Amino acid sequence: MSTSEASSGVVAAGSGITDEIEAPKPGRSASVVKRASSAWCYVRVRAVAAFAVILTTCTFGVLGGDRVRRWSLRVSLLSASAVPPTPADVVGNYLRGQVLFGQSLTPQMPFRWQTFANRAVITATNAEVPKRIRRLQRLSDLEIRFDTDFDSIVEGCRHGRSGWLTGDVVDLYRQLYELGFVATIGAYREGAIVAGLWGLEIGGTLGIMSVFHRENNSGTLVIAAAVDRLLEGGRWSTIDAGQLHDNYARFGAALISREEFCHLAVRHLESHPA
User: Fold this and answer.
1) Are 227 and 251 a contacting pair, CB within 8 Å?
2) Which residues does 60 contact at the CB level (< 8 Å), separation at least 6?
3) pLDDT by residue (tens digit) across 11-31?
4) Can you tell me the distance from the alpha carbon of 134 to that of 102, in angstroms, rounded to the nearest whole number?
5) How far apart are CA 113 and CA 44, in angstroms?
6) Distance in angstroms (rounded) separating the CA atoms of residues 260 and 221
7) What DSSP letter does each residue of 121-170 carry, written as one string?
8) What range defines the domain where residue 39 resides?
């Protein structure tokens, strides 16, 4: 039966059954589905946020109002992760101790903010490059370059890994790179990249986001290059390594609280030359 017959209710020959199916208006179904999907996403975000606030209050309320308020702040930032952050959000929240990551398993909420109770930091007072690594630097024939190859370094960090470095979050950090808020360090052999590091650069703070290597010791050399730049003075006063691993501990990294880190980052922002 043709579409015109179905829409006009013509009786099919010998069937005795009238077709009364109304032809959908063009674009109506797609529009309804899109609005329903958006409404469901909104309801889910708000429901999760409300449940988390209640759970947090019940769990930590006995420990005092300050603890509850801190956890409520974390929840409120998480609930906003369905809305694409701006570069200003990333910079401002980093100075408050919030780090932006991507989420590959929840396409409707592709971003998440995460808070860490402690940060592993390297400053001029505790930075060091061990003698063994100094020897590696002297003997190495790798070329170290700064701020020249964001895409290749990030792709190196993504290769063979799954997790937070999603396409959405990489696009946002690329915007920050173009605005001058992301630094990169790459190690090259005959023009081919073999190791790289990238991170947020806000004032005098370098917040390392990810590192990769394809040759033994090449990753160590890019971290050493960052520490050397700190020791030289002028560009970085603090290197935020995130969590404390052996790779950073040997360069002098030490744990400080999130509150101490925020004060440090803001102080170095104020004192850093424009």
Assistant:
1) yes
2) 67, 68, 71
3) 333 333 333 334 444 444 555
4) 36
5) 17
6) 28
7) EEETTT----HHHHHHHHH--PEEEESS-HHHHHHHHHTT--SS--HHHH
8) 1-83
